[in-house]
Design a protein that fits this description.
Length: 96
């Protein structure tokens, strides 16, 4: 399931001039090439049958997050999610 606002344009300038009240970085809603590349690779693998189950979390341009899942689930997939969580936390902590 892909969610989006009907009629919204990717990279819309509607939020280009927003400033945060608390000094936080305001995330741009412009497409992220690295994210697009990963999603394209995963789509190709799914179309070929290499990927038969998926779960993931995404960050939207407004900083909200959502999750998606589909297909085959397993205990190994739950373990892989735990590894991803640890890696993401370590990367985030290293960048601060």
């Amino acid at each position: 399931m892909v969610s989006y606002t009907e009629g919204a344009e990717v990279g819309s300038t509607a939020v280009d001039n927003v400033e945060s009240l608390y000094g936080d970085v305001v995330i741009s809603q412009t497409p992220n090439p690295a994210t697009i590349a990963v999603l394209k690779d995963m789509l190709e693998a799914a179309l070929s049958g290499e990927i038969v189950g998926f779960t993931g979390a995404v960050v939207h341009g407004d900083r909200s997050c959502s999750t998606r899942y589909a297909g085959l689930a397993s205990y190994a997939l739950l373990g892989a999610l735990s590894v991803a969580q640890v890696r993401l936390a370590a990367q985030h902590l290293d960048s601060e």
